[in-house]
Amino acid sequence: MIDQTTQVSAPSRRLPFDRWSAGALLIAALVLMPIVSVAWIAFHPTENIWPHLVSTTLPRYLKNTIVLTLSVGAICAVTGTALAWMTTLYRFPGSRILQWLLLLPLAIPAYVGAYALVDFLEYAGPVQTALRQMFGWQSSRDYWFPEIRSLWAAIVVLSGALFPYVYLLARAAFREQSGAVYEVAQALGAGPFRRFFRVGVPLARPAIAAGTAIVMMETVSDFGTVDYFAVQTLTTGIFSTWLQTGNAGGAAQIAAVILVLILALVTLEKIGRRRSRFYRMGRSQRPLEPIRLTGWPAWAATVLCTLPFLMGFVLPGGVILSHALDNPEHWVDRGLGLALWHTLVVGGSAAAITVVAALFLVYGLRQSRNRLPKLLLPLTTIGYAAPGAVLGVGLLIPMAAADNAIADAVEALTGADIGLLMTGSAFAIVYAYAVRFFAIAQGAADAAIGRVSPSLPMAARSLGRTAGGTLREVYVPLIRGSVGTALLLVFVDCVKELPATLLLRPFNYNTLATRVHEKASLEQIGQASPAALLVVAVGLLAVLMLARANR
């Protein structure tokens, strides 16, 4: 009996482990590797310059980053919430079209907006030229004009590009609120402003906080805008420390500071709404009835809602379009064609790999009985919060070491020089894109698979289908719409990604984003405009999908 008990109980203590668990663990490890790599390099640098950074440049980087992040977050929170409130609860001239137009600034990358603003307001731009002609001024010494390449300009550009994140989430929250709540508040004597501050904002606070957190994380990770405006932040510090001084350990230490800042933002956002609980009273709750404005308040609302759209989309889009039309010869430039091809290759490859991996991970966790992959699942979304520059540091250093070791080993054995397989090709860029935007694909896959009735895969399994066969023949046909959406969203973000591409691209390898940055940095806006327009056109596809999903 003792022997039988031992034989029976021993297998029961073993954790079930299968190919789904192994695959899920492998994918999670690959996604987390760059983050772990940054932490390891930061704590084990070849040359420790941390004391030098702390005593010289790091305080300035940190101060500018915090000021920029808090300013952009505050402006976007106020602007996005106010716009969502007005377009949801009121009707005024143009309100129906404006509620969709206010999403369009998401299609303009912030760095494109920076190039357009400088071109519009610089000394030779149309604004200062018109002022000199109007008042008869001869040179810049005759009048005062604010410095364009400065911190305040970076705040304006980033706010104009990012406020739709708050607007989109706040508008969805306002639309889900019950009209009866506002009727009660109005019956108790609350005017429009008191209803906004005492009812609307508190009920929508979780959505507003989530949107503001996204804005602040995007601000921390921005490189193109702050670099063009000569604002020294933590992200620009990574590039200067690594590329100018050649100290990879110092760059990793600055990257670790960014990770700590990002984690602090995420933690504060969760703490700020952990005790907030908001429930719908029932399916039959009365929806909000928009109030029709008349007279000057109606036109004032139209003007207030139009200004962010003009600033965030019309101005940068108009400037770039004007340059593109004035310089048609740059549309047939060979460099633009190569940049477009590279963008399609790396963006398409990254989107396909990311979505397939996310689908395997989500489905595999549902099949697996092992707890470890499920515990790692939330951590795989951290790549979306990590800036591209951080991922570049976390990938390039270990990949370069592995590349050199492989090349040396092959040359020692065969005498052939195979070169750098990973860092000498677009492999590193695709890998960085997959890690950076894995959360988007994972969220889409998880939501899509969760909507499939459990009875369908159960029926397939009862008919002899394997787990893989059930995924191919049941799940994929049912969720192909969501998979297609995830592919497009990941591809769009890959097209706009700049910092990771700058750090990881092989020599003389341009995408549309790096070509825009390269030409604009040389003040060649005319040559940068075709690539910028193509980036904007791709971004519009994602915005149109968002508008369709939020009807």
Please summarize what this structure is.
The chain has 551 residues and is an all-alpha fold.
Task: Please explain how this structure is put together.
This protein has 551 residues and is mainly α. It contains 25 helices and 2 strands. It has a two-stranded parallel ribbon. 43% of the residues are buried.
What is the CATH architecture term of the largest domain? Orthogonal Bundle
Please give the count of helices.
25
**What characterizes the major β-sheet?**
2 strands, parallel
- The amount of beta strand, in percent, is under 5%
Number of strands: 2
Record the SSE blueprint.
Blueprint: H1 2-12, H2 19-43, H3 50-55, H4 58-89, E1 90-91, H5 95-101, H6 110-121, H7 126-135, H8 151-175, H9 179-187, H10 192-221, H11 224-228, H12 234-244, H13 248-272, E2 291-292, H14 295-326, H15 334-367, H16 371-376, H17 382-385, H18 388-414, H19 427-436, H20 438-450, H21 455-462, H22 467-496, H23 499-504, H24 512-521, H25 525-549
Parallel strand pairs: 1-2
Helix pairs in contact: 2-13, 2-15, 2-18, 4-5, 4-8, 4-10, 4-12, 4-14, 6-8, 6-14, 8-10, 8-14, 9-10, 10-13, 12-13, 13-18, 14-25, 15-19, 15-20, 15-22, 15-24, 18-19, 20-22, 21-22, 22-25, 24-25
